[in-house]
Specification:
The complex is a heterodimer of chains A (about 325) and B (about 325). Chain A is of the alpha/beta class and about 325 residues long. Chain A contains 12 helices and 12 strands. In chain A, a hairpin with a 2-residue loop joins strand 4 and strand 5. The chains are: A alpha/beta (about 325), B alpha/beta (about 325).
Chain lengths: ~325, ~325
C-alpha cells in the first residue's frame, strides 16, 4: 500500500566523474536530495549543471567512462548503486520509468505504437497480447489521446510531437511505477501543448500515485507542475526547497540570479528592456574553481568562498542552501 | 504568399495574405507555434524564399522583384540570423571565414575585409583571437554571437532574427538579448524578432503580430497585447505564461493544431476556438482595426470580450497552481 509522505528516494552525497581524453570531468559533486511518495520534484539547472547526469546515475544508465566516486542512492530501502544488474533490470522500467526528452529518438520508428507499449506491458506486467492491448488503450485514454485505437495502430512518425510525448508518458505509466524520471519531457513541444502535458502529469500523479523527478532547464515549467525544486550548478546541488519557498525567497545567489534573468513582459513603455544577466560564463567542468563553484560569478563572494566548498545548511523548514552567506 | 511544391502538386500555403508595417528602429515581434508560418514569413521578407505574390517595400522602395545589381545593392541592408547557430555556421570554416562571407559575396576588396570582420566581432563582444576558431570550439552563446557578427558585417538596416535565443540557457539568453538591444541602439537597427517564447517577445518587442496556421490573427503594441489580447488564440497563448493580467478569461487549448496542408475552412482557428459560431467555419475574418494600433481578425470579438463560451469542448479552464516565478506571497 503506497502511503503519501514516506521517503521513496534518497540521494546522499553522490559524486561522479567522466574520464575523457581531455581529463577528468567532475560532473556531480556531492549531490543530495530526498524525494517522498507522490511528490513532484523538479531538478533545475543550465547546461553542464549535471541534472541529466544525476537522472541517469540513479538508474545506472551511464556511459562506460562514467565513474561513481562516492555516495548512495536508496530507493525504497534498496541501494540502487550496489544491487546486482539482474535485480536492477527488474526495477528499471517497472518500478522506476523514464520519459526522455525527444520522443522521436526514444520511440522505435520501425514499430507501431501498439507493439512498443504492448511489449512493455508483456515484459513487466506479464500479461498476454490481448490483455496488453486492452491495458494499452486504457493508458492512452489516461493521457488524453482522443483516438487510442488509431494511435495504437500508428507508427511514431505519423503522430505529432505532442502525441508522441503522450505515448511516452503512457508507456511510463503502464508499469504502475513508484517513480517516473522525466528528462526535459516538454522542451520539444510548443507552449500550448507543453502546458497541456504538464497539467496532465500533475493530475495523473494523484490518480496513479507516483512520484516524479522532473529534470528541466526551465524554472517556469517547474513552477507549473512541481511541489519541490532543487537547483543545480556545475555539478552541485546549491538549493532545495518547496516551489513557493524557492520562488518567493530564493537564498542562493545563483538561484536569485537565475530568477532575475528570466524575461518578464514589460508593464509600461518606460520600463527598460535590459535583463539582469549573470556576469561571466559557466565553469569548465574539467577545471572547476576551488571552494564554491559559483564564486567567480557571485556578487557576494568573500574569502571563504574561494577556498571552502559550502555544506548544505537549513535556512527554513524543508529549505536548504549550500552557501557561506548562511550559517545554520 | 509562399508555397513549397510537393509531389502530386499539393501546395502548403505557408503564409497567406499577410500585411505588416514595421517602423524604423523598432523591434517588431512575430509569435506563433510550429506550423504557423512564422519562419517562412521571415524568409520571404528577405526573399530567401521568394514570395508567390504580394510585395515587400523597404524605405518606400518595392524590393520584391529587384534583380542583379539593384538586388545586390539592397541585399546589404537586410540580414537574417537563423535559429540554430550550430547549423547555420559552416563547421569547416573558421569564424573569420564565416563572418567574412557576406563581404566576399558583395565583392568587398579582400584587403578591407579583415578590419570589417574585427569590428563586427568587437561589436558582439568577441576578442580578436576568435578569428581562427571553428564552430565546434564555441559555446552556444559564442556561436550565436558569431552569427550576429556575420549578420552585422555589412551594416544592414533591417535584421530578421529567427528564434535567436531558443537554444540557449536562461543566463546566456539574458546576455544575448542585452547585446541585441545595445546593437540596435549603436547601429540604428530595426529588428523583426520571430519567437515562440512569449516572455522574451513581451520584453524586447515594441509591437507584436500573432500568427496561426499561415494567418496573422492579431497585431498590437506589445504592452496592449499583453494587457488585453483580443483574439482567442492570443488569449490561449498568453494563458500559458505566468505573467498574464486578469483582463481576459484564461483557458487551455485542447487537442492538436490542424495540419498546414489542410487548413480548416473559414477562420483557421475555428476548430479549436471556444467562441466559434457558424459563420466562423464559412468565412475568413479580416484583420481589422479595433482601436488605435490594435488589429484583430475575428468574427466574434464581442463574445470573446464577455467570455461567453460557445463551444465548451474547446474550453478548458486553467488549473490553479501555486506560485509563479517573481510572484510573492
Amino acid at each position: 500500500m503506497k502511503s503519501d509522505g514516506a521517503e521513496l528516494l534518497r540521494v546522499a552525497d553522490l559524486s561522479l566523474d567522466y574520464i575523457s581524453p581531455q581529463g577528468i570531468v567532475h560532473a556531480l559533486n556531492g549531490v543530495s536530495l530526498s524525494l517522498r511518495r507522490s511528490q513532484l520534484f523538479g531538478v533545475v539547472g543550465e547546461s553542464g549543471s549535471g541534472k541529466s547526469t544525476l537522472a541517469y546515475a540513479l538508474i545506472r544508465l551511464l556511459p562506460r567512462n562514467a565513474v561513481i566516486r562516492s555516495g548512495e542512492v536508496i530507493f525504497d530501502g534498496m541501494s540502487l548503486l550496489t544491487v546486482p544488474e539482474g535485480k536492477l533490470k527488474d526495477i528499471r522500467g517497472k518500478r522506476i520509468s523514464m520519459v526522455f526528452q525527444d520522443p522521436m529518438t526514444s520511440l522505435n520508428p520501425l514499430f507501431k505504437v501498439k507493439d512498443q507499449i504492448g511489449r512493455v506491458l508483456e515484459l513487466h506486467r506479464g500479461v498476454n497480447k490481448k490483455e496488453a492491448t486492452r491495458l494499452a488503450t486504457d493508458f492512452l485514454k489516461a493521457v488524453e489521446l482522443p483516438d487510442p485505437e488509431q494511435v495504437l495502430d500508428s507508427y511514431p512518425f505519423q503522430l505529432s510531437g505532442g502525441m508522441q510525448q503522450r505515448v511516452m508518458i503512457a508507456m511510463a505509466l503502464s508499469t504502475q511505477p513508484d517513480l517516473i524520471i522525466a528528462d526535459e519531457p516538454t522542451s520539444a513541444v510548443d507552449a500550448t501543448i507543453q502546458v497541456q502535458i504538464l497539467e496532465l502529469l500533475s493530475r495523473l500523479r494523484h490518480e496513479h500515485q507516483f512520484s516524479m523527478l522532473f529534470i528541466t532547464h526551465s524554472l517556469e515549467v517547474v513552477s507549473a507542475v512541481c511541489d519541490s525544486v532543487g537547483v543545480m550548478y556545475a555539478g552541485s546541488m546549491v538549493e532545495t526547497g518547496s516551489v513557493s519557498d524557492i520562488f518567493s525567497s530564493p537564498r542562493h545567489p545563483y538561484t536569485q540570479a537565475l530568477l532575475a534573468a528570466i524575461p518578464k513582459s514589460r508593464k509600461s513603455a518606460s520600463e527598460p528592456k535590459r535583463l539582469q544577466s549573470i556576469s561571466g560564463t559557466p565553469p569548465d567542468l574539467l577545471s572547476l574553481p576551488p571552494g564554491c563553484k559559483f564564486n567567480p560569478r557571485c556578487p557576494y563572494a568573500f574569502e571563504n568562498c574561494r577556498t571552502e566548498d559550502p555544506a548544505f545548511r537549513q535556512v527554513g523548514p524543508g529549505h536548504e542552501v549550500a552557501c557561506h552567506l548562511y550559517k545554520s | 504568399m509562399s508555397r513549397l511544391p510537393l509531389t502530386k502538386r499539393q501546395y502548403i500555403r505557408a503564409v497567406d495574405d499577410v500585411s505588416l508595417e514595421i517602423d524604423r528602429n523598432t523591434v517588431f515581434g512575430l509569435v506563433g507555434e510550429s506550423g504557423s508560418g512564422k519562419s517562412t514569413l521571415g524568409m520571404s521578407m528577405l526573399r530567401i524564399i521568394e514570395p508567390t505574390s504580394g510585395k515587400v517595400v523597404m524605405d518606400g522602395v518595392d524590393i520584391t522583384h529587384l534583380k542583379g545589381k539593384e538586388r545586390a545593392k539592397w541585399s546589404s541592408q537586410l540580414s537574417y540570423v537563423y535559429q540554430n547557430p550550430v547549423s547555420s555556421l559552416d563547421p569547416a570554416w573558421t569564424v573569420e571565414q564565416s563572418v567574412s562571407e557576406p563581404l566576399a559575396a558583395a565583392h568587398v576588396p579582400s584587403n578591407e575585409r579583415k578590419d570589417l570582420v574585427l569590428q563586427s566581432l568587437a561589436a558582439v563582444g568577441l576578442p580578436d583571437y576568435f578569428l581562427g576558431r571553428y564552430p565546434h570550439e564555441l559555446s552556444g552563446g559564442q556561436s550565436q554571437r558569431v552569427a550576429i557578427a556575420r549578420a552585422l558585417v555589412r551594416r544592414p538596416k533591417f535584421m530578421v532574427l529567427d528564434e535567436p535565443t531558443s537554444a540557449l540557457d536562461v543566463s546566456i539568453q539574458a546576455q544575448l538579448l542585452n547585446l541585441l538591444m545595445d546593437l540596435q541602439a549603436e547601429f540604428g537597427l530595426t529588428y523583426f524578432y520571430i519567437s515562440h517564447d512569449l516572455s522574451v517577445v513581451g520584453r524586447v518587442c515594441d509591437r507584436i503580430a500573432v500568427m496561426y496556421l499561415g494567418k496573422v490573427v492579431e497585431v498590437a503594441d506589445a504592452l496592449d497585447l499583453f494587457s488585453l489580447p483580443l483574439h482567442p488564440y492570443a488569449q490561449a497563448l498568453l494563458s500559458t505564461t505566468s505573467a498574464r493580467s486578469s483582463s481576459f478569461l484564461a483557458f487551455r487549448l485542447t487537442g492538436e493544431p490542424p495540419s498546414p496542408r489542410n487548413p480548416p475552412n473559414g477562420c483557421r482557428f475555428n476548430t479549436r476556438c471556444p467562441y466559434a459560431t457558424s459563420v466562423c467555419s464559412k468565412e475568413e475574418p479580416k484583420l481589422v482595426q479595433v482601436k488605435g494600433n490594435h488589429f484583430v481578425a475575428c468574427h466574434n470579438l464581442d463574445l470573446v470580450a464577455q467570455g461567453k463560451v460557445q463551444v465548451p469542448e474547446n474550453f478548458r479552464p486553467v488549473a490553479v497552481r501555486g506560485r509563479s516565478p517573481g510572484e510573492s506571497t
